[in-house]
Amino acid sequence: MLIRPAVLEDAEVLSHLVHRVISYLTIHADGREAEPFFASITPAAMAERLQSSQFRYWLGIDDHQKIVGAIGIRDNAHLYHLFVDPQHHQQGYGTQLWQYVKTYALANGNPGIFTVNSSLFAEKMYRKFGFVPTAEKQEMHGLAFIPMTLKMAAE
Question: How many angstroms separate the CA atoms of 72 and 17, rounded?
Fold first, then answer.
């Protein structure tokens, strides 16, 4: 998989990708109560993040030049978004994106501490990455998530 930095022109693609995984994130299948989340994933909201110095995003592109996943990190420490197109789940794309961003963050000053608000669906994957829960399941804005942290051992 090719991983490249996302640019402003990718805002719409990022928004569409997140919309394809909505059912894995919302508490209610119909999305009720998740309006604040929906507002945060519009193309305009994604464009705002892509222009912010707080965020960095990358896209994962398969051998057929199709965008299969995306990852975003805030403040070089909080895994803000990690989404893989449902048709490409369980193929290692999420792991590849995470490994890439983890290496980037460490090379750019992260001391080995990462956080994420994991969806219930992704908890097992984040545990495989070494993240551990820091609190019980939370519910906010129509989403359910588990706050998690990864503290890497100092070498």
Answer: 13
In a domain, 17, yes or no: yes
Q: Which residues have CB under 8 Å from 134's CB, separation 6+? A: 115, 147, 148, 149
CATH assignment of the domain containing 24 = 3.40.630.30
Q: Which domain holds residue 103?
A: 2-111
- Cβ contact 83:24 at 8 Å: no
Task: Give the count of domains, the chain.
Answer: 1
Residue-wise pLDDT for 38-63, tens only, equals 899 999 999 999 999 999 999 999 99
Cβ(108)–Cβ(76) below 8 Å? yes
pLDDT at residue 154 tops 90: no
Q: How far apart are CA 114 and CA 78, in angstroms?
A: 6
Q: What is the pLDDT of residue 155?
A: 54
Residue 124 lies in a domain: no
| Helix, strand, or coil (residue 43) | helix
With contact defined as beta carbons under 8 Å apart, do 72 and 51 qualify?
no
Q: Which of 30-39, 52-61, 82-91 has the lowest mean pLDDT?
A: 30-39
Burial of 32 per CB tally in 10 Å (0-12, 13-18, 19+): exposed
